[in-house]
Design a protein that fits this description.
alpha/beta
Length: about 240
Amino acid sequence: MIEIDRLTKRHRTRTAVDDLSFTVEPGRVTGFLGPNGAGKSTTMRAVIGLERPTSGRALVHGLPYAELRHPLRQVGALLDARALHGGRTARAHLLGLARGNRIPDRRVDEVLDTVGLTGAADRRAKGFSLGMAQRLGLATALLGDPSVLLLDEPLNGLDPEGIRWIRGLMRGLAAEGRTVLVSSHLMDEMALTADHLVVIGRGRLLADTPAERFVARTGSLEEAFLRLTADASDHRAGKEAR
């Protein structure tokens, strides 16, 4: 379970997250939606200890990330697919993480197979397309067989087959009882994937509801989202921070 409890993150000139509270339950895919600049990435980064809250808490299984005994085995995250050493092969990247977290080497080949990168396991990451980098990021998130997964825009760079595959992967992980939080700008895909939706705008909670209920009035996730966030979007230049 992920608990966001009155989380606030202020920077010098703006407030990225503003007194935000919600819970992500296990056993379902929770879509995390909001316009650019809404605070989605900041919130996810706070969950895994990459952002220090100004106030409030972000907890996993009731604890801050820094207090988890085996964090990689409890939480898997894909926040930036390109955040890896380009000179390393996919296998070397995963082996380093596995050995540093007491995860058996065999798990590396298992996750490479799961994400469809077995044939590219010995290629250097700097030669990967964005779609392949996303698959390697997913392999990293799955490496410790965690019960909680945070995926920030995991569909970027994937072709239609890859998008369909990750849809099935996320739903399968949730069906196993895991907690899955995924952000995406692809409304059509979220309509097919998410069981529950958390929508934020300008760092504040706008909706926390089953997906079916959210779209009941308009019949369209995109239309319902645009109506809800109409006053929370800022399309001016320089306002694209997330």
